[in-house]
Amino acid sequence: MAPDIEQIAAFLDVVFGYCDGLIPVRGFVDQGQGLDTKPHNIWVPADRHAAASLSAYATWAAREGSAVYVIPGTVAEQGQARAEHVLQMQTVLVDLDAGDIAAKLAHLVHHLGAPTLLVESGGRTAEGAAKLHAWWRLTEPAEGEDLARVCALRGEIAEKVGGDLHFRSAHQPIRVPGTVHQKHGVQRRVTIREHRPRVEVELPDFAAAVAAMPTMPGLTAPSASPGATRPGLDAVLTTPVREGSKDAWTRFQGASAAIGHFVRMVHEGRVTGDEGWEAICQYNAACLRPAWPLDRLKVEADAIWALHVDRNGPPLLRAAAPPPGAIPAHTLGALLDDTSPMPDDLIGPRLLTPGGMLVLGGAPKVGKSDFLISLLVHAAAGAPFLRFTAPRPLRVFYLQAEIQYHYLRERLQQLRLDAAIVARARDTLVVTPKLRMLLDDQGVPLVAAAIRTAFPDAPPDIICIDPIRNLFDGGPAGEGENDNGAMMFFLQSRVEALRDQVAPEAGIILAHHTKKLSKQQVKDDPFLSLSGASALRGYYTSGAILFRPDEEQTERELHVELRNGPGLEPMLVDKIAGRWVEFDRRGERLVRQDIGRKLDAERLRKQDVILGILLDEAAEGRLYSTMQLAEKFENKIGLGSKHTIRERLSVLATKGFVKFRRDGTEFGLGVVRSRFGYLCVEGMTFGPEVETVDPQTGEVTTSARRVLPSHFKCPQSGNCLDVENPEVWVYPEGVLDDLTPEELGLTPHSSPKTTP
Q1: Most exposed residue of 44, 85, 678, 741, measured as fewest CB within 10 angstroms of its CB?
Q2: Is the CB of residue 291 less than 8 Å from the CB of residue 338?
Q3: Overall pTM > 0.90
């Protein structure tokens, strides 16, 4: 029995479609087959290739007798699969594996609404009913506190309907629809029974519905027993707790949570050791009833400290604080009276200011690194790039961690840059190949030393980090980029620390990934798509988002927001012939865009077909006037009526793709009496090659008989004018600039067009 890739793809869309990161996949041998195979685990990126990757794995698993499970949430790195590693979840689920399955499902649908996905897991109850998994998709991924809320909801639903309580844990795996269930040697496909792709729920509304849902008759209502739920830190630090398990948590649980909190603060260097111990003693006196003896408190604190150091490495002990320096402050009058010149922008207008930070965001493979490289090369040369300018050649250090050396040099060599720009930027732009490191306590000094080595005489003007994700260090707690505290730690203690070491006035550019949003959401507010914590948007001085409004087109939109200047209008850009260019948006269609593109493509096809016909027919010894070609090929090769063909020929003649020859006697034809003459295109030859004998040497050679134009159509007046030099094919001025990339490129019957 083979896996069903369509069901796997539908499942991945519901469970991971909005998530970023890696999907932990588990392969366990189903019981009762007599097989003894070790579990096989992989991590699959949550992207458009996930379905193909998971299907290939499922095919292997079915052959080996293994079941395929996933943890229904994403993690940051391979090898991570514990509950604390799960960063995002976008579904709430319940596993109905015992009792009256139909009644439980009806109870859920009545109180919570129909699920987005209903899956038959392949197992059967003692009564022979199919075991079910019910999934409700959220409108956006849950992170942080919302993630804990999702897990609590899964446990509460399971308690109220008699489902599997293991799904209180974020890392509990579950079978994948479309794969094969093989317990006891009986093969059944895990099948999607119902799929409602439009059903999505808001987490607060769904939580309210779960709270209002009564427990099914015959089941015990969920109890708030001590230790049933993990207390929040704020509650622990402010709520008294009595001995004898009389409260929502025990004294031991409260003391462990409070001591762990202050131990983390000491380990991260946020408070000194004495301050941390004092805070622990204050908690003991204020919240534990009765308080623990100090010797017991000391033993517990020392044990938790030793465990924390073992897990997280040496502490960053805080030294005694130096005396505070003077804080600058200015009166309103002083600010109004200061008319000194403003500092020059590093990249104007106000895109990157001295001491500022620019974040460039974009989806993977949208071209942000390529765009960034072009921007940095022009900044290093002091040359304008699109609308952006640099006041002088800037010293740029590009710390990039994605592209290996050979592919980096290939990409740089493919840039179509003016020789003068390359000459000015040769020594002022320094780029690292792909790095395997973090910007942490060891990484910051290494990068600072590399920058000083690259620019020994003067500090850099710009430090660029591409991308954040590959170099991110969230601090001793090890949190990811989705945590606001970890993001602020990285920006302040890593990025700012690096700048302060080498060039306090340098501008910082950070390249960052965006998360998965709908096209409409990106258009409404592009900067909401920046992946990770919201603290990033509040920290930078300018932001730029590069995205494709239409995946079938190559054009990208560039949106820019500035903290220190007026906003810039969105730009429509694309890379053509190795150069980034901006399009005039006044020529952009506003309505019927799809049909317009199809009509453009059809006109381009007819152009290529007509030029090809002229070349092929001439090669076989036939030349045509405009009318004769239109009449002969009417309704052939999809060219339409003779009137349509004549109109296309007229356009091609105006653009210089078609010219004319009046005298055909050289080819055995007469002189045409029509207005223009025989149709002629660039590179046209007549008939087979002919032999010629050199009268002096007697050498016999073969050569093609070229058909050269004698007249052309004036693009202004439409009159028939004489060609000055038939050997040189000249296009009207400005025509090549107006051609589309497809018209400029190679086609089956034309060559690249260049201005003579």
Answers
A1: 741
A2: no
A3: no
